[in-house]
Amino acid sequence: MTTDSQRRRHMIDLDDVDAEEIEEILTTTESMKEVLSREMKQVPALRGRNVVNMFFEDSTRTRISFELAARALSANVVSFSARGSSVEKGESLIDTVRTLQSLGADVVVMRHGESGAPYLVARHFHGSVINAGDGRHAHPTQALLDLFTIRERLGQIRDIKVVIVGDILHSRVARSDIWGLTRMGANVTLCAPPTLLGQHKYWLHTWPGLSISHDLDAAIKGADVVMALRLQKERMQAGLLPSLREYTRAYGITPERLAQLDERTLIMHPGPINEGVEISPEAATSPNSVIEAQVTNGVAVRMALLYRLAG
After folding, report:
1. Residue 75 to residues 52, 69, 70, 164, Cα–Cα distance (Å)
2. What is the pLDDT of residues 82-99, one digit of tens each?
3. What's the predicted TM-score (pTM) here?
4. Do 146 and 260 lie in a common domain?
């Protein structure tokens, strides 16, 4: 169990988080979800602490989720946008963070288009850094809310079969989910066209227990969870796909594939959804879908992390 002296300062990815600590985070999330079920959805745990949401990429659900989480813990919340800031005038990322630190920031929640940017910030910031998504690298809070949702609905993570389908090569969500799921003992299958998966040896060298498939119909047999990833339409423009229609036919969660799933199988998606591309409207709104629960649980997970890092 993590002691106070061992408690981490930052959450940048799950690659250095063991199963015991993940379990602690999920247990704390249960307590935070109970807070959110009350009529007064607020506790004074972070009263007087300053949380800065520093988003260099557009976001809706992640940014608002962190804002709601911080406010539910009674923290002061400031949203920073690169547009109109000193960044546009040439100020470096390090100078920006030092300015925020001088202004009293205790926690920086950061989304950035460049992989590794949160690591750079963490080296120059005396408080805590939470990675809200960096380039193709990581999105740890999305992975944690996925783990929490799976455990909440299925009662366990160990030994379940999870199929992740879609643009895995470019997905920071997929990488963090793979770290979290494998650490918690799940069996993970990656399914994608070769152009959206890359070299098998990279995945199998980093995570030796993975299974890899290019046949979604075969992969989803016996699956407990099917997680579809958002398809960036620029992948087709880059020549990585013949057409969106062909992608949907081969890798979309269509009504026909929905009918193949067990009634207990969970359908997940990190959002935002391209309905009719990676997932059909019927699948997104079916009893199998826990997509809305993922969004709801995101607030509780982020409350748990803020509390553990800054409480």
Report:
1. 10, 9, 5, 35
2. 665 556 555 688 999 999
3. 0.94
4. yes
